[in-house]
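Note to self: the last two entries modelled the partners one at a time, which told us nothing about the interface. This time every component goes in together.
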Amino acid sequence: MLTLKLAFRNITHAGLRTWLNVGVLSFAFVLIVLIEGLYDGVLQQVKDDMIDSEIGGGQLWQKEYDPYDPFTLEQSHAQVSAELTQEIMKRNATAVLIASAAIFPRGHIQSALLKGVDPDQKIVRLPAFVLRQHRQTHAIPGLIGARMAKSTGLQIGDVVGVRWRNAHGTFDAGDIEIVQVMTTNVPSIDKDQLWIPLDTLRAMLRMPGEATVITLAKDIARVPAHGPQWIVRDHAYLLKELIENINKKKISSSFMFILLMGMALLAVFDTQVLSIFRRRKEMGTLMALGMTRWDVVGLFTLEGCLLGILAFLAGSLYGIPALAYIAARGITLPQMTSQIGWAIGSTVYPHYGLRLYAVTSLTLFISVIVVSFLPTRRISKLKPTDALRGKLS
Amino acid sequence: MKKYFAFLGSLLFIVAGAGAQAPSGADVLRHIDKNLVLDKAVMSTTMIIHGRAGTRTIRSKNWIEGKDKAFVEYTEPAREKGKKMLKLGDQLWNYIPEPTDRIITISGHLLRQSVMGSDLSYEDITENKKLIDLYDANVTGSETIGGRNCCILELRSKEEDITYDSRTLWVDTERWLPLKEERCAKSGKPIKRSEILEVFRVEGRWYPKRVLYRDLMQNGEGTEYIIDAVDLHAAIPESQFTKAALKK
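The predicted structure of the combined assembly is written out below.
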């Protein structure tokens, strides 16, 4: 208890030196929580957007379907079973049929995916209802995302030629009128794809009653019976790549973490080294009064730890309101970040979990204890007589 | 009166004779196949692609055997030299030389992709099937193209798994070559057009010398396909149509 009192009195009497250390440490602490919170926020946002706009409560994939292998696409269609059709009728699921095609915006060929969706579906946040709108032309109504609109130069009202092959391999061609350009944070429902009514695509491909993917409702109680043609893809599978990508980004951003922590800990280390040098006589006096060398080591280490505690308290004092404010207002990203391939909105809202707070605090404490202790090892070899004379042996 | 009957008789003879000579759609297709389908050939060709970024000329050597085997080796320009393509039945492989040194399988919808940015797809360039086996044909009219008398032939696919559901051919009724052709989608929309600009005679058959292909859904000016030389009796070793030949 005496050591604690002594340590506290020492750091409070150190004045500006202590508060500078506390300031640097707390600033690093708050900044680390903010950066980590931003990554967690991005992950949470991307997950929510993907679930809302694309994957719902999970999906059933036709067994041949592999979105990363275009070779599989021609075989990736199967009849929707009676059980699944019932679930679709009950609005517990929706079917999507996918086919590759070539489109000709402004006369230039471009590869695209044709995706057939039920205009009445409410399972995912996709404005498919626009595909029912009355149109001026007899062209097939089409819905595209803003990224697709940008890459093709297509706008609402434009008619674009499209060429595809039906189930028998025969070429077919027609026109699609763009009835809506949607803004979405999810590139995987936007980039290089055209959404058209499911029944129209089935007729175009000569694939009546068939689908490539069945998306289940978010609140569905259980996966319906689906037969051997379909494979269940749950959230863990569908979000796996995204989580891995963000974790990789987190690791690559650890440079920032190391830099911030390094700066703060260097300040503590410097302070400790300086203290030991300047307080040699004090150490000698304490040992002459009966303290062992290790008691003195403990005192100096405790002073460093108290700096960590004060930094934590100070950081919490100004950091919690500041971080809460940022979490509520979000951080608006520059336009270029929408090109990185994740489903990020224009504003990112950091997400600070208890785990993040605890892990960051613990890392800070342990690091401060280590850097506080390291310079004090010299004290363990100190002779009290030398110390009283102001010498470091 | 005798003169009148004699004139009428000869007129009837001419009309009846002309009627007997008018070939059916199937006959025209047989004539075309006889000219265009090659049992075996080694050809040197030039492809002139009139693209958005200008005109590119690509030269190649082609080996063909029946409808299922084809091998193409690009010889010019330097950046395409050494690239090869092998077709065996429905399978197709592309070889890209060093430093990539890779064989790429082309199948499914990739067969529809354009060859080196041209208006020809991989399927178009390796097609050597008899039209008579694929289509029913009807002669629907006649027209003159480039001073040559042509009959107009409407083709309808016999089966559902034919690449082009229908075609319209303007066939030179003397040389039996389709001087113009439109290949149509299932919806009837024309998607590709070819025009034979020059012909030549080889081994007793007429064969296209210079053909202009156009993808009608694109804005480009088309691709010229020129046959510089053809040898119908060249000995082609069996090893020419193997994947090993790609890396040779």
